[in-house]
């Protein structure tokens, strides 16, 4: 990276430290988040690159009003099965691979995030396991997260070049308290963020399904004591954040909806949609999920963990995916 870009990056860091964000910057909001967006006019000037099987105008209206959309039955079963086959290979033979895994169990404290080789094999197929950025290893994962029907919607809401930020794979429900994504999954422009949950099986009510508060993407932002982004010097905790989201949603009378989608359906949600994982009531019931976070090249022109390096990138259906500089030996090992 050039000296000028390093200086600019350092200046941005100092600005974040001394002038923390209290709200998304209105000047950089995606067009759909600005006041009175002209959806019909936008689509007239920016028709989707792909012939999508859903009503784009209707989906954009739902996004603007509710903070999420469900794209029904858009992923072929064969694509999902190929990806899940890669996952089964990974957890069956972890000694062959290098990637980051997090297991939120007491027995693995204080280091709950490690190389996959450092966890017992049986633990990798249990609860509280999150496989980080498996798409870097799996070509099937790259193809799945950049399916043309997903890409079309992301391009419509951002009207910018789309990039992949990160991904998570898990077998069981997260049971995670209410949260919004942007305080943790943060680009240079925090509002340039969307997430997709690709259902890898039909979701059952006893699996700890995902829930969200409809319209919560418009609620006032929580202040961690360090602004709206969670940082090492934040004085408020994630549990206080969850309590704020639950109580504010109740005060605003925002409906809480539990989502039971089918294999091949995709939920895409706004950076500020309050959501979480319900309690698992059947300990044997899985919730096989591939969760992907996306931003724009304008907001994230680098790998999120290497802001001073020029990224090595791959193009899938017009979306940039950054290779992981930490694990170059693992890129595309599963084809």
UniProtKB/TrEMBL annotation:
<protein>
    <submittedName>
        <fullName>Phytanoyl-CoA dioxygenase family protein</fullName>
    </submittedName>
</protein>
<dbReference type="GO" id="GO:0016706">
    <property type="term" value="F:2-oxoglutarate-dependent dioxygenase activity"/>
</dbReference>
<keyword id="KW-0223">Dioxygenase</keyword>
<dbReference type="GO" id="GO:0005506">
    <property type="term" value="F:iron ion binding"/>
</dbReference>
<keyword id="KW-0560">Oxidoreductase</keyword>
<dbReference type="Pfam" id="PF05721">
    <property type="entry name" value="PhyH"/>
</dbReference>
<dbReference type="InterPro" id="IPR008775">
    <property type="entry name" value="Phytyl_CoA_dOase-like"/>
</dbReference>
